[in-house]
Specification:
This protein is an alpha+beta fold. It contains 5 helices and 8 strands.
Length: 187
C-alpha cells in the first residue's frame, strides 16, 4: 500500500466512486470551505491500483489544523484503512507540521466511528441534528486528534517520528478537488 497524489489516469475511477450516491450519503457531511485549501491523496495497492482516497480539507495554516476523511470503496483495499490512516497521520503531523485534525462522522456510520477511535481520535462531542438527509435529521459525531495524541497513542512515544516530508497529495483551493467533501469511512 502506498499514498500518492491523484493522476489523470485516476479520473475514471474517482468519477465512478463520486457518482455512488450511497457512498457519498454515508461519508459526506458538509462541503469544504471554498476559500480554504484541499489536499487529496490516493490510496494505492503496490501494483498502483487506486482503492480509495484521503482528503485533508478546510486547511488552516495559521492555526495548523484541518479536517480529514478517508474512503476505501474498492473491495481490494479492505483492511488497508488502519495502515493508510496511520501513514497519512504521520505525514500530516510530522512532515507537514499540523497540530490538530478533526473528523466529523454521521452517527449512523458506526464503522467509521470505530475506525476513528482505533486511529486514536478523541470524541469531542455531538452536533445534534446537524445534517438533514433522506427526510430526517441526523447527528454528527466530532472527533479530533492532536499531534501530541498521535505521538503518544499511535507512535508510542512523545517524540517526533522519522517521517520524511514528501508530497502524497495535490493541494487545491475550492470544492473542485476529488472527494473534497468526505468524512471518514473506513472500509
Amino acid at each position: 500500500m502506498k499514498l500518492t497524489p491523484p493522476t489523470p489516469e485516476d479520473v475514471p475511477v474517482l468519477e465512478k466512486w463520486l457518482s455512488d450516491k450511497e457512498l457519498l450519503d454515508l461519508i459526506r457531511i458538509d462541503p469544504p470551505r471554498p476559500d480554504m485549501p484541499v489536499l487529496t491523496t490516493i490510496i494505492r495497492l503496490d501494483d498502483e491500483t487506486p482503492v480509495g482516497w484521503i482528503d485533508l480539507f478546510n486547511i488552516d495554516h495559521v492555526n495548523m489544523k484541518a479536517e480529514a476523511g478517508i474512503a476505501i470503496p474498492d473491495e481490494r483495499g479492505r483492511g488497508l484503512a488502519g495502515v493508510a490512516g496511520k501513514q497519512y497521520l504521520a505525514l500530516v503531523f510530522e512532515a507537514w507540521g499540523f497540530n490538530r485534525i478533526t473528523c466529523r462522522i454521521l452517527a449512523s456510520n458506526q464503522y467509521a466511528i470505530k475506525c476513528a477511535e482505533l486511529f486514536g481520535f478523541i470524541r469531542e462531542g455531538v452536533e445534534r441534528q446537524a445534517i438533514y438527509r433522506d427526510g430526517k435529521f441526523e447527528d454528527v459525531i466530532v472527533f479530533a486528534m492532536l499531534r501530541d495524541d498521535f505521538r503518544k497513542k499511535v507512535m508510542g512515544h512523545g517524540r517526533s517520528s522519522t517521517v520524511h516530508p514528501r508530497s502524497a497529495g495535490t493541494c487545491t483551493t475550492g470544492t473542485d478537488s476529488i472527494g473534497a467533501s468526505c468524512s471518514p469511512s473506513c472500509s
